[in-house]
Amino acid sequence: MTVVQCRMARAALGWSLDDLARESGVPRRTIARFEADENVRPEVISKLTDAFREAGIVFLARGVNTGGVVPPSGGRWAR
Questions:
Q1: Tell me, what CATH number does 63's domain have?
Q2: What is the 3-state secondary structure (H, E, C) of 29-41?
Q3: Rounded Cα distance, 17 and 79, in Å
Q4: Sequence-ordered list of residues with C-beta below 8 angstroms from that of 46, at least 6 positions apart, any chain
């Protein structure tokens, strides 16, 4: 997951940094550092990615939309 994908996924879910911190177990300050494009440990990115996937986000890694995200279409996080 890239920094841009993290921001897009949060926006798609309507999550604040605090929401992502709660769902991922990663401190808010660490998430803010990641989104500021500072170095964080790979396991931090893994926890963030897992939280987004659990919420239904799909990360695009191929094709025309590489680097994008697909928001969930229904369920708990749909708005």
A1: 1.10.260.40
A2: HHHHHHHCCCCCC
A3: 18
A4: none
Whether pTM > 0.85 for this model: the answer is no
CB count in 10 Å sphere of residue 77: 17
Q: Which residues pair with 69 in a beta bridge?
A: 59
Asked whether residue 78 is assigned to any structural domain, the reply reads: no
At 65, the pLDDT band (50, 70, 90 cuts) reads low
The boundaries of the domain holding residue 12 are 3-70
Confidence of residue 61 (pLDDT cuts 50, 70, 90): confident
**How many contiguous H segments (helices) and E segments (strands) does the chain have?**
4, 2
pLDDT of 64 over the 70 cut: no
